[in-house]
Amino acid sequence: MILDELYKIIEDRKKKMPENSYVASLFKKGADRIIQKVGEESTEVIIAAKNENKQRIISEIADLFFHLLIMLSLFKITPDDIFKELEKRRN
User: Can you give the pTM of this predicted structure?
Assistant: First the structure.
């Protein structure tokens, strides 16, 4: 699944911290910046939805998913942890 693949890439970038990596730059700036990015992306999703622009909504949600994965990595939470929680709620 693409979310798992992206999460693995994020984990690798966090570990190796390559110079030209956007993900590494966020981890270098710390938790506050990562959390701030999630907030910014959430706001952009809301604005796109308010404007009823389907393609923009899709694009902004993709950005939000990406930044959420970075935040999950920050807190040592895996996508599988989230999926398990959703499964519990379904039952």
Answer: 0.94
